[in-house]
Amino acid sequence: MRLIAGLSDVVPLDSIYGVTDLGALDLPGEPGVWEIEWKQDEGPSWLTPGRNGLLMTQYGPGPFHLRYELWDADPGDPAERSWTGRVHFASGRLAAYTLDEENETYEEFDLGRAGAEWNVRVDWWSLREALRPEFAVHEVRGQVLRFRFWP
C-alpha cells in the first residue's frame, strides 16, 4: 500500500457538520452533506455516511484538525474510534462543511476521480489522545479526524 496524496486542514470552531463533495453543488440531482438524514442504525453514533458526504455533527471542544489521505489500497491500522465503509462522490472534490457561516467550506481535497464509489475510513481522536504522552500533560483542546480513501 502506498500513500498517493494528503492534505491537512483546521476548522477553528467547536463543531463540524461533515465532509461534502464540493462538485455536487453544481450537478443537478446530486445531494450534498446537508441532505443526508441522520440515521442511528447506519455507522457509529458520531457519523452517518451518505451519497456525496459524511454527516458528522461533531461538537467540540474545537478546533478540529483534519487529515485527508488518498491510498492505493486499504491503509490498515484503524483507530479505536473509527468507521469504514463505501461512499459515492460525484466530483471527488471534498471539503469540511460547517454551519457557522452559510455554505462555509475549508481546504479542498481532490480524490482525482469523479463519479466513483470509494472505500472510506474515518478515524477520530481527541487532541489529548493523539499527542505523545509528554505533551498530553498540558492543557490541550481539540479533535483530530483522519479521512482515508482508496479504490
TrEMBL record:
It comes from the Bacteria. This is Uncharacterized protein.
